[in-house]
Write a structure and sequence with these properties.
By secondary structure, the protein is of the alpha+beta class. It is built from 13 helices and 14 strands.
Length: 408
Amino acid sequence: MLKKVFLFIAVASGVAAFAQTDTTVAADTAKAKADTVEGFRFTTVDSVAITPVKDQNRSSTCWSFSTIGFLESEVLRIKGKEIDLSEMFVVSKTMMDRAAYCVRLYNEPRFAPGGSAYDVIYCMEHYGLVPQDAMPGIRYAWTEADTLPVHNELDRVAGGYLKGLTGLKKLSPVWREGLQAIYDTYLGKCPEEFEYEGKRYTPKSFVEALGLKAEDYVSVTSYTHHPFYGRFALEVPDNWRMDQMYNVPMDEMMRIIDEALAKGYTLAWGADVSEIGFTRKGVGVVPDADKGADLTGSDMAHWLGLSADKKKEELTKKPLPEKEITQQMRQDAFDNWENTDDHGMQIFGIAHDQNGKKYYMVKNSWGTARSDYKGIWYVSEAFMKYKTNDILVHKNAIPKDIKKKLKL
């Protein structure tokens, strides 16, 4: 059963009041500001329970934050219990695996701190999960107040270590220990056992206690360079584990998202957020410049004279006409490197703007101070169709007719 949450944003005053029926829902957007009376006003239609917004800060670990948030919502759905899981346990395990993969291929693939939603599911299945208190993941803080990830140095040191192995005729049997020591130094050691609420667990027994099963989760995408209703490994660098995703037409991908939310499931979302329509204020749209601006006479001259930032501001400061997205547009953008594997987030609800237009509510991992809506983004249907690379979802959330086609 979906939890109804009603959000009213008073745009003129820049103050929003947010009423919720479950304190675990992190979309607390009280006092959300708006720049002008022309801004967006959103009303929540349906919302699934999520845990509080976190902050990945200066780390390339959105894939871990978004999918851990997704699993936290799964625990809420299954157990009715709010839990805070460790993102850095997953990061440590994943980066060690990625390093071994790169070494086996003579360091030809890129060793980088990115990842995919499937990395988290793989970690859950093979290594387990731990609560945040068991592995906070920050041992490098200068002061006790430094509680957010900063991985600039870690990434450079780990990358340099792996690069240093290149060209050696033979590797020692302890090279993994050296790299593991780097991650242990910065993130802390991954615990083999820990206590949680008075009980002792291993990471694997903890997953069992949470009621999570890796086989319940599937990845879905939508591209035409592979047959629909089959599976393929999406060709993006961070899908280095070669996760075999189910391929469906774009409209069916959207149906999966809608039905999942209607059934009370959230989704982990891999998307491209580098385009003009994804703003730092908390909105994702695909504006149609030809329809959204009066491009005649002096207005045309004014428009052409604007900087790229000013054009973005004009096209995203209020609801405007958007492009009609087709399957071919998705494919062209992927093939031309326009749609890239940029960012991971969590889809958890549906809202309407002041014109009744549909948006998806998305939990980001950039903290609560970096958007007008306390870490929540409102993404239009056009943006979701165009910029979605892949989704991770519980297989029971998929419509029955699509499951049948996928032979799930």
